[in-house]
Amino acid sequence: MDTSLEPAYPEVAPGARPDAAPLANPGIGASVRRIEDEALLTGTARFLDDLQVDPLLHACFVRSPHAHARIRAIDATAARAMPGVVAVYAAQDLYGEITEWRMPLGFPLANLPADTTPFVLATHEVAFVGEAIAIVVASTRHAAEDAAAAVAVDYEVLPAVADCRAALEPAAPPVRLGLASNALQEYTLSYGDCDAVFADAHTVLQEDFHVHRGCGHPMEGRGVLARPDPASGELTVWSSTQLAHELHYTIAMMLGHPEDLLRVVTPDVGGGFGVKFMIYPEEIAVPAAARKLGRPVKWVEDRREHFVSAIQERDQYWSMAVAVDERGCVLGLRGRMVHDHGAYTPQGANVPYNSASSMTGPYVVPAYRLDVAVAYTNKVPVATVRGAGYPQAAFVMERLLDRISATLGIDRAECRRRNMIPAAKIPYTKPLKSRAGVPLTIDSGDFPALQARALQAIDYDGFDARRQASRARGLYRGIAVANSVKPTGRGPFESARVRVQPSGQISVYTGALAMGQGIKTTLAQICAGHFGVAAEAVQVIAGDTAFIGYGMGGFASRQAIMAGSAVDQASARLRRRILDAAAVLLDTLPDELTLAHGEVVSRSGTGPSVALARLAMLLKGVPGYALPVPGDPGLDETVHFHCDAQAYAGASHACEVEVDALTGAVSIVRYVAVHDSGRIINPVLAAGQVHGGVVHGIGNALFEWMGYDDAGQPLSTTFAEYLLPTAPEVPDVEVIFQPSMTPLNPLGVKGVGECATIPVAAAVIGAVEHALAGQGVRLSEFPLTPMRLLECLDAADGPDDIAPAGGRA
Amino acid sequence: MDTSLEPAYPEVAPGARPDAAPLANPGIGASVRRIEDEALLTGTARFLDDLQVDPLLHACFVRSPHAHARIRAIDATAARAMPGVVAVYAAQDLYGEITEWRMPLGFPLANLPADTTPFVLATHEVAFVGEAIAIVVASTRHAAEDAAAAVAVDYEVLPAVADCRAALEPAAPPVRLGLASNALQEYTLSYGDCDAVFADAHTVLQEDFHVHRGCGHPMEGRGVLARPDPASGELTVWSSTQLAHELHYTIAMMLGHPEDLLRVVTPDVGGGFGVKFMIYPEEIAVPAAARKLGRPVKWVEDRREHFVSAIQERDQYWSMAVAVDERGCVLGLRGRMVHDHGAYTPQGANVPYNSASSMTGPYVVPAYRLDVAVAYTNKVPVATVRGAGYPQAAFVMERLLDRISATLGIDRAECRRRNMIPAAKIPYTKPLKSRAGVPLTIDSGDFPALQARALQAIDYDGFDARRQASRARGLYRGIAVANSVKPTGRGPFESARVRVQPSGQISVYTGALAMGQGIKTTLAQICAGHFGVAAEAVQVIAGDTAFIGYGMGGFASRQAIMAGSAVDQASARLRRRILDAAAVLLDTLPDELTLAHGEVVSRSGTGPSVALARLAMLLKGVPGYALPVPGDPGLDETVHFHCDAQAYAGASHACEVEVDALTGAVSIVRYVAVHDSGRIINPVLAAGQVHGGVVHGIGNALFEWMGYDDAGQPLSTTFAEYLLPTAPEVPDVEVIFQPSMTPLNPLGVKGVGECATIPVAAAVIGAVEHALAGQGVRLSEFPLTPMRLLECLDAADGPDDIAPAGGRA
């Protein structure tokens, strides 16, 4: 990455659909600086642990050390007597506070039994190491931790099962008492006549793949601060979450707390990555304890807790066959995928469905059949992490395309091009439906063009010279390209309220949620363009239920689309109202007026003007006097932008690596990410998300390994064991936007957040395999740690039949 | 008043316009019990002084002991050193906190210079006894008071002027340094050819009248609690005010505080009566001190402070002549009125204008000319108290009608009837405009019918027998009737937001303000009728800026009209949305459905149903899933009801008194109040307001005397000196509603709050004069305390020419 002080301006190629109507909003398209950064850079940002409420109590949780056990008894007598301890609450101590004891299913519309979610605190059974059993509240965190260790839980240890394939064996012990089967779901996604195409195919290839478990690991873990006001009954809950309004709903429902007396606020959030797209038991237990005590209580997750209680992802075993014709065109895919869901289904079972339904990516696959088995295991529950099942599927698909290329002797890029959905066929509806039952329609894009741009940018054709230079230095060099597409901008809606205050301040309130990606800047920019002010003149309040009545939050690469469109429409409405009102006051026509620098001025530059502040003061109304212009008072417009269709964002990543066969070290020497993200609101911010997504994908591909032993004991609970990529492991990433405008929203924007993560493992591991092509190494899994790569090299059965010569080979 | 536990149900006569369309809302018209009362009766209501914020500091103010003085120096050294004292801030100590130092003019559209309002804290001059100079903050109120006494202020005492007539003399000292004249305003209201009608009149009568100064005296005085959150910058201000949103605006503006970081909340408010229809210096100084200290600070006005710093009213001197024809019909009125405005104009100069423009009341006056002089004096500033200038004018007009009756030998009621605007001439536009420049149009009503009903109810014709019975007991008995009309429902708008929560709770948020009159019950009742629930199932949050973005508040008998209509319309819209959404879910037509007991049910009683709670849960949206019905999410509707025309509410009060000529005691033995308040939403609540208004008027008429000596020193600063009516002084009040529906709002309602106060002094003093008619007593002023009545009797010049025989005499 460019480390100079000036941001590296990414390339924004002309849109693939240059006929798209230009936007009137001059705020869109400029790389304005982030309005978030001054606070972040000067240390005045307020993450959850920075919040000070006086006097404050601190909480920690008693968590299960066993992967599966019956709780016979909990004795907190000693803990309660320890210095500084205010309370120790096990489940039975909070029965009066919590009216709904079982966590709700995050997606209540999913076809799952409701009783597969955990309780707020475990009552009679724990099903994974880390499950919360009791909350300890003390005057300091240290006192709380010491007391938590002194809570005596009498466990009857039960058999556990850690591997999802083993969990599905008939003799496997139940992951939870009373489960008739550890199979949460078994279903088949299919279309076309798979058996027929396999029977008639020119070539059939078969391979097994495994994607290992990993975590989200935002820089800031989870955290909750609850402040009750015993006199008024008001309860304010701050949480480092991606879902402020859903948390408001859930706390009100589970604590039986009046909605009017509850406010949920998200402070600065240090990353989410899907981990915080969940309502967690701790977010219920902390407010319950605080309300019961009548005092503010704060809990901040430590890193070890994140490893054992924040949701995880990725565990999947695929056994796939592909049928192709003589040109390498895929005729059909079939196989089985086993997905590890951990001990509970707090959010439903959307991840395996996403993997299963997205496997074909940007490619044409005439026939498809995937048997899906979703298994409970005695591990941390699984829900969405950035990409939400797509990276696994892309990895499997792209590996299969490499197998086809190798078998039929077709260049890997050419093989992909032959299989791609051509631009002329878009919009393209896949013969599958989303888990919500909606057809999967790729609304816009040009996948072959994205790949061509990536190959050009990485100089695919000039690879051989670089390979030879590396070999001269004793290193193996490889190159690969991988493609993906993801629907972005999940609905059903997002809210935006734009208000001009009597001070002249322009405020934007939204149900969207800022978690580090710069969404406040993006929204301020969209709003500012309508009012003729700089983005930093707009105040954005996101994820605070006091300011807007409904909202969704941040997930599924949706915010620029959904919140951006809502802000755009609310701003446009408010601008129109301002011009209309000013025209009455100034005795002119609205069309003669425009907005500049916080004033309504005449377009001609010669007429009278009125400051926004004065207009807002007049329109708020003076008690007893008529408003100076007809219509509703105030300058305040709310829009709920709704759209259930999703904008498909394509990506083509090209990657070049050097591999040291002696150490197993993989060095990514070149990385090009070409993205169709629709219209780009702020190129630097969008590129920042691509950078982050690529780094996330590199971690997934090469380092991040959340291990469990057979008894369900976690093997990696520190960053010494679970390796995240750091600066030396991260290459410069060349980001190129080659947009096609989606017709699904007024801005023509698509999501970015997850899209850059999806093809990374496929590209990186493809390049490693290409580098080692002469070594007979076949790579069918990730992460590919140095140790694992050395194992693969050791196990390789001799020179491979793929000649490692040139990019095109 | 009826003191039984069951409320006395007032009579509601059929409307004078029975053709008015009936309302579909079954909640309207029933005397449901007040939803406010459980908390009030069980001691769990929270008035300002009940609010507990921990740890809390207490404030009191250093106030001027001089009516006029220059401040040479303020030395707080000793005070700051006293135990428990946290801070003493004079003006210069808060310059950094307060960006606008002068209080804004409450009615900025009034044609007044802006520099006639006080500063937050006096800087170099004080202009009335009680003006705040410094704020003292300490750990207890006692410590703060002790320290306030220790603040050494070096005053140069300046000449003061306490009488408004004296203040207008050329040689009068200026009320404030630099004032070129103590005349704040001098203007003439006039129409018709007054000089001509007086020249040609059958009879011309002339008299001087005086209405003395009084206060508002709500049971709860003023009070402010400000809680800053130094970390977030949020500032929450609780105030016992009638103007939450205007206070929000003013604090933000004067403290330069970001609007988004400010919340104004009104707790339970123990009465307002116009005294709290003001933004006071203390409401700025307390938040400023709290923010500077970073700690919560509370100030609660004590009763003595209320006497010397809460606004006052009523001081007026009228010198009037009336020209009549031989039938006693008024041909013209002319004269001069001098109004005492106190030392500043915090709210503009609306009271004298109200008096001047309302003098003709419900009567036809063909020609009118009133010279108005508004004078500054070194007394507490004047603004609106219940009735806002109308009681003074009604007193003068009704006294003049009595003089006409006496002079021409016409029965007093008949004389009034002859002069009344006949029902057939309504709507009737007076040849005057409001202070906002709007024509004064009486929209509806039948004044002769109201008086006829009052005379019938009090048995005017049977008075003579009662008079003789009283005389047999040594008491003089008199009877009188007085009429008034007041425009009610001042605009420009009021806001209402109605929301159904996922718990099923129906919440109403409004900019209206509850200050004891039962407006929460009224609004709940209006809302409940649309949803098929009881009023107590509706939660009303009034006067909290966190819940609704714009609002006006409680003043000018407006809330049932403005907020009631807003709630009615918002509820109707939400009901329509609910039925439409439920029809989609239940696969039926909206017209097949209705709402009952928190559920949408089929009108036939046989179809499927859906609970409001479930509907609200579904419509809040589930992240990632389409809303189950088309359209915006949520169940939340906001309406700003706006209306600049006012609904005219008429009243006719008949009163009978017994007077003890030895002691000067006046006993009100019968009291009938007939009111046209439009459609009655809750008869018991409306009657309660009439009761309160009559009691307020009785206090004004007979007891309340806010005295000042010539040097501007207040003479009545306790309830031992300033007498309020108590239970023994208050008669049973028979309340009769004889409504005419106003076309100005969808409910047909009119205001009640002030209307019952306006004619009381005229009726009571008219009855006293009637009782003493044989004694040669002419009563031209109020209050008429026993002592003052004895003085009048002593000064009487012998038997009057009015025979005290019978009601009709």
From TrEMBL, chains A, B:
Statement: the UniProt record of this protein carries the keyword Oxidoreductase: yes
Region feature Disordered, mapped onto this chain: 1-24
Residue span, Aldehyde oxidase/xanthine dehydrogenase a/b hammerhead domain: 42-159
GO MF annotations, alphabetized: iron ion binding; oxidoreductase activity
Cell wall biogenesis/degradation as UniProt keyword: no
Signal peptide positions on this chain: none
Residues spanning the membrane: none
Key words of the record: Molybdenum, Oxidoreductase
This protein's name: Dehydrogenase
